[in-house]
Amino acid sequence: MTDLAPGAFAVDSRVPGAAPRGFDAFRRGWQTQIGDVFPLPAFSPATIADFRLKGSVARVRDVVIADLHMASATRIADPAGGDRDLVEIHVLRRGAWTLGGLPDRDEHTVSTGQFLFRHFGRQMPFETAPHTTAQFLFLPSATLRSLLGNRTVIGPADSAEMRLLTAHTSMIQKTATDLGPAGVHAAHSTLIELAKAVAVRRFDDVEPQLAPALTRAAKDLANSHLAHPELSPTMLARELNVSVRTLQRAFATVGESVTAYIRHRRLEEARLALTSPSGRWSVSELAAHWHFVDSSHFIRAFKKHYGQTPTEYARSTGSAAR
């Protein structure tokens, strides 16, 4: 297997004749793609009989990133004897994931919007609620075990450190097939550094290799708050727990400013609204909705970016802005 290999999969063992063959095919595919970085546990017979799962997976050297949607409930069988040495991060987007049940360990339930980060010296029993969506990161223990010790780190998935980590994993999944050896090395190194940051709940905001992840996290955050009147470099820096200067320096590495990115994205949304079949916006309404100073300012910015005024653009596409 190569250093980095992406893939998508889906399985539904309820299809006539699919169970257990459908589950066995999934297990073989996982083993082919992931190898021995994270061998699948032994699931309960009830789980195998109703196993509905879809997702994608990527491997970066000794790190596995899996985004999974489990439509059915899952439960692993008795994991006795399942020794291993692995660090895991579980980020719950929806549903619930319960870990524990051994005499020497507490039970933990990770709910929507939370993450769990810990070192595992052996396979632990776990179960998931139906319709659970999560990202799982399986990491080598050598560089992270000493930071975690026996701690179980549970926190909000929207913390500054987790925002950077998930932004970086998203970049990896989107560019996996295009990364050469140098790119794989950089992606892996940054993953480990960001995982360390989650473990200690802070990151080195002057570390150059974290700039792309910081930029991506800021863009993701901006995209989800484009209509917010307070969206600004200051707001983004505050949410990501960095200085405005650090954020601006990170954006400079990709040749743009934070303010320019926000303005361009708002202009793009305004452009799409001009030709939306669901309703027609006036120029003044667009200017107000996307927080331009006034209609004149919006028109000038739109023309500078697209070479036409909003009205000219709407006419050229068969619409008409009021």
Task: Provide an overview of this structure.
- The chain is α+β, with helices and mostly antiparallel strands and 322 residues long.
- 41% of the residues lie in helices and 23% in strands.
- The chain contains twelve helices and eleven strands.
- It has helices spanning 21-34, 45-49, 145-148, 160-175, 181-200, 211-223, 233-239, 244-252, 258-274, 283-289, 295-306, 310-316; strands spanning 4-12, 52-60, 63-70, 74-75, 83-94, 96-99, 108-111, 114-122, 126-128, 132-140, 152-156.
- A seven-stranded antiparallel β-sheet has the order 1-2-3-10-5-8-11, with helices on both faces.
- Strand 6 (96-99) and strand 7 (108-111) form a beta hairpin.
- The longest helix has 20 residues, at 181-200.
- Mean pLDDT is 85; it is low at 1-5.
Number of strands: 11
Mean pLDDT: 85
Shape: globular
Total helical segments:
12
Termini Cα gap: 58 Å
- Which strand-content bin applies to the residues? 15-25%
Computed Rg = 23 Å
Low-confidence parts = 1-5
Order of helices and strands: EHHEEEEEEEEEHEHHHHHHHHH
Helix content: 40-55%
Structural class, please? alpha+beta
Question: Largest sheet, order of strands side by side?
Answer: 1-2-3-10-5-8-11
Can you summarize the main beta sheet?
7 strands, antiparallel
